[in-house]
Write a structure and sequence with these properties.
Layout lengths: L16 E2 L7 E2 L3 H5 L1 H10 L5 E7 L2 E6 L2 H8 L23 H4 L10 H16 L3 H19 L4 E3 H18 L3 H15 L5 H21 L5 H7 L6 H32 L1 H4 L6 H14 L5 E5 L5 E3 L2 E3 L5 E4 H5 L28 H21 L4 E2 L21 E3 L13
Parallel strand pairs: 1-8, 2-3, 4-9
Antiparallel strand pairs: 3-4, 5-11, 6-9, 7-8, 10-11
Length: 424
Amino acid sequence: MQNIPPAAAAPARAAWVPIEQVGPRILLHTPEFAKDPHAAYREMRKEKYGSLVPVELAPGVPATLVIGYHTARRILTDPEHFPADPRGWQDTIPADSPVKPMLEWRPNALRSAGLAHARYRGANTGGLDGVDPHRLRDQVIATTTPLINKFCRAGKADVIVDYARPLCFSVMNTMLGCTDDVGNDVAWALARMFDSTTDTDKVNQVLVQALGGHIADKRAHPGDDITTRLLAHHSRLSDEELINQLVTLYAAGIEPMVNLITNTVLLMVTEDRFLTSRESFGTPIKDAIGEILVKDPPITNLCLSYPPQPIVVDGIWLPAHQPVVISMAACNNDPTVNNTDQFFEADWHLAFGAGPHACFPSAQVLARMIAHTAIERLLDALPDLVPARPKEQLIWRPGPFHRALAAFPVVFNPAPPLPIEGHR
């Protein structure tokens, strides 16, 4: 059972007010927000916005950001009043809005409600539960070795480009039974989706072509992979539905994983309490991953819902068919609940969401294992790895949803290649 911090009494208000009148809208799509979102959350609290803040996800796209932990939990566990289906909203925003590819309706668990959500979630759960974590860990280890060997003698690398991103795509390709060519096409499309491209049609065209061909191949040549299990599931998903389950799995397994690995490495190589514990990696890595998930989660603002009718939350009127966005980062750091420095065993945080749309339990276990193994392998091989420039000079990618470095250059003493299993 989760150890959820108690809720404090909500502040009294003279009358209910519309969210538009709470205060000026905060822009979440600017480089300034990306550089230090936590400063923005602190400013929101300082200006007494309360648990709900009027924000803009992109030019002309208003939304409400939830920064109060207990308010977020109430919303996440109330799908009747806060369904995740965006179809009543998405046609009200500009057709070329950069957030549309990321947020538009797709036939998947993330963007559905009711029976459709249960059907898609059941199929995905069946696919993920068939993944053997021990075999997957072996796959992660086998993938890290050649990646590290490509740059270990150079004395420099980019943790994102040279390590975390190719690792995560390779692992996801294996889990889904996809070829490298399919994975590369999906990588192109997802990068533009997360970076808020306006080319929605091109993104969807690439995804449909690449994954449609992959599904046809798996139908003819089944294997021990998630795609084959989705094809065999009793829900009998159509090809369109299958494509969208794979898009969701790729999206959840790449961007958040890359950010979790990268941001945890950054924490460990810049904080003394981790630098002094290199002789025993097990606990420090687990601790660091837990701290990132609580204090600086890789996906900062998401878990969107769209109230079908105007509704009052904490004394504030929220309009119908306008996004309500959970700030996992702000809620995890809500001063009314976060009063400890012991994060590695935290089970109350919202980094994986909560309620019926929470990240699949098996996926949470696999995500922690992949991140732990990837970080352990990198720092074991290159124990003196440090950022190539001061932490304050690293640039964070703009975007309202992720906490992602644009680049993470590092330097280290050149090291010999790692032995490859079966080679002497």
